[in-house]
From TrEMBL:
InterPro entries: Glyco_trans_2-like (IPR001173), Glycosyltransf_2 (IPR050834), Nucleotide-diphossugar_trans (IPR029044). It comes from Vibrio maritimus. This is Beta-1,3-glucosyltransferase. GO terms for molecular function: transferase activity. PANTHER family: GLYCOSYLTRANSFERASE, GLYCOSYLTRANSFERASE 2-LIKE DOMAIN-CONTAINING PROTEIN. It comes from the Bacteria. Keywords: Transferase. SUPFAM superfamilies: Nucleotide-diphospho-sugar transferases (SSF53448). Residues 10-170 form the Glycosyltransferase 2-like domain.
Length: 240
């Protein structure tokens, strides 16, 4: 950690009853090769001991802040976190998801060199409770997979052509893979908590109209599938 008083990146983590997953989540942040960040946990009314755990954590670590709220949902929790964030860029991470070690460094490097980029995201792997891989995100979306195959092969970040149209076709963006510019987020007023669903999708579309969107085909996040009811959907894709 280099500077908590003037961090470049603010990591915003909504939490609701994810005590069992918080140590791993934090470990994936601590293993980042990029270190100029702050962490803002927004506890959304947890009853599993998360609040007590996060209170002790924030008291012992100056780069970790805790915001307490009461069941406003993840979008509202993220909005609260961004409102108090100090960083130029916001990186979202759900409390039960994980990052690979180079995730922040790569996004910061690209977005620093491309000031018109307001949103970047990565490919990610769905995993189960046993940390077994299920399917990469981009492989699940046929339109986006065709787009990737039509591009020159690269593992680097690249600007997404016709971003609004591409994002409208398929909700390919995993929230825990996102880094966005804080000023752009505030400009489009963040997550719309009045929407009954898909407030994340709505936000990506709004951001895509405010500037460039970039992505990498490399897996830089692991998304935990906690409900077995969702697994058959991905298993069907694997059989195709």
């Amino acid at each position: 950690m280099t500077s908590q008083t003037n961090p470049t990146v603010s990591i915003v983590i909504p939490n609701f009853n994810c005590l069992a997953y918080l140590p791993q989540c934090l470990q994936s942040i601590e293993q980042q090769t990029y270190t100029n960040y702050e962490i803002l946990f927004v506890d959304d009314g947890s009853t599993d001991g998360s609040r007590e755990y996060l209170t002790e954590l924030s008291n012992a670590n100056p780069h970790i802040s805790l915001i307490l709220s009461e069941r406003g949902g993840p979008g509202a929790a993220r909005n609260l976190g961004v409102a108090q964030a100090k960083g130029t860029w916001i990186a979202f991470l759900d409390a039960d998801d994980l990052w690979t070690h180079s995730k922040l460094a790569e996004q910061v490097a690209f977005m620093s060199e491309h000031p018109n980029c307001v949103l970047s995201f990565t490919n990610y792997e769905h995993i189960n409770e046993a940390s077994e891989f299920i399917i990469p995100c981009f492989q699940y979306w046929p339109e986006f997979q065709r787009y990737i195959e039509s591009q020159s092969a690269t593992s680097d970040y690249q600007v997404l052509s016709h971003a609004t149209a591409m994002l409208f076709k398929e909700n390919i963006v995993g929230t825990s893979s996102v880094m966005c510019r804080r000023d752009a987020y505030l400009q489009v007023q963040g997550f719309d908590c009045e929407l009954p669903s898909a407030s994340d999708w709505d936000l990506w579309l709004k951001l895509s109209e405010a500037g460039d969107v970039a992505f990498t085909n490399e897996i830089r996040m692991h998304y935990l599938m906690r409900q077995a009811a969702f697994l058959p959907m991905f298993q069907n894709v694997l059989k195709q």
